Amino acid sequence: MSENTTEVLVGGAVLAAAIGFVLYTGQAAGFAMQSGGYPLSASFRSLEGVSVGTDVRLAGVKVGTVSDVSLNQETFRADTVLSLQSGIQVPDDSAVVVSQEGLLGGNFVEIVPGGSPFFYAEGDEVLDTQGSVSLISLLLKFVAGDSGE
What we know:
Elements: H1 2-28, E1 38-44, E2 55-58, E3 61-71, E4 78-84, E5 95-100, E6 107-112, E7 125-126, E8 129-130, H2 135-144
Parallel strand pairs: 1-7, 2-6, 5-8
Antiparallel strand pairs: 1-4, 2-3, 3-4, 5-6
């Protein structure tokens, strides 16, 4: 009888660990349920390394996620929807930049705030954007001695 009790306890512990792992993975991947918030749209020349669920940060703090990415067939740019937490006000002269966490880190979308006293409203489009810069292209230019002239 004690073997059966031990098996049930070990099975319960393994099941609890599996459920905890699934919940942690969901939060880390950005699938957590967000209450409220509002969308902003932006169009990028290059959105390399950014996909749905990528963090949107302001001053290094996560304030939202990328909720939609699509290719605009007319302009050949990546149209993006950023879902920001409610209560976060972004000045309407701010820039949105695709940044890298480091040499080996992933990409994220960074909001560089402006100084305007007016703020973006729900559904507004951010016009000042800067796409991702390919680190490999930069290294190849450096190695080849291309000065860009």
